[in-house]
Amino acid sequence: MFWQPFMTMRTRRQATRAPRSLRIADPREEAETADGGGEAEADSRAPSALLMLLESRAPWEWAASIAALPWLAQAPRGDAHPVLVLPGLAAGDATTVALRQYIAALGYAAYPWDLGLNFGPRAGVIEQCRALVRELHARHGERVSLIGWSLGGVFARELAKEMPRATRCVITLGAPFAGHPRATNAWRLYRMVSGHDPVSDQSFATLREPPPAPTTSLYSRSDGIVSWRCSVNPQRPQAENIEIVASHLGLGMHPLALYAIADRLAQPIDGWQPFAIEGARRWFFKGNGAGT
Asked: For the whole model, what pTM was predicted?
């Protein structure tokens, strides 16, 4: 099964089957969130070709972060607790250098996953991720914050579910943990490099439930790789969604994403509050489905 390496022995209802064809996503549509104990119906619409083309703006988002460094430097200082950063599909630690450098500059102990390229839950990878979280927890004597970009965000959420006593918070960037596995433009690449077929799998619906730790999903309606519907937490306590305008490939180095990450990491360990979207922040951020 697609995410069987992550799963516990719990029984959940099966997800709906994939339709024969994909529909083009309309980025203006409202987000689908769960109400009560139910789940929104799976949506198989992948980002449009136009949004795919807009992924070329990623270098400009990196340049914008450099220009915004004086502003980003004013973020709250860290408390030296460990932060593990997990890369996206077919990506490695080189793609998270800017993010880790910024986190370290704020005073956190930032760590790469150090497992090469992320080709999915291959044999031994999940075990090594668990061992790394345990090691950082023991070394620092503090719970670990997990940050995951795209597929790395799915890893982060599932690790937090398995290791709640070692996890401080979870922050994901364009992570496909909800919706249908075909609602991305990378599912074929995932199938090729991981050896798993997400379309035939019946366990992906369990990924939607947030972990018990405070959980923040950063997403963009103009994401050209992962449909934004796949990155929206249901309304649960200590689970929130923060929307910015960004590309998928640039999320991990976008100045607004970096600012939000700094704000979330600075939350007291026992005094978490949702990201406040007020004042000037309303010009740049939108919230969706935050729980307290």
From this structure: 0.84
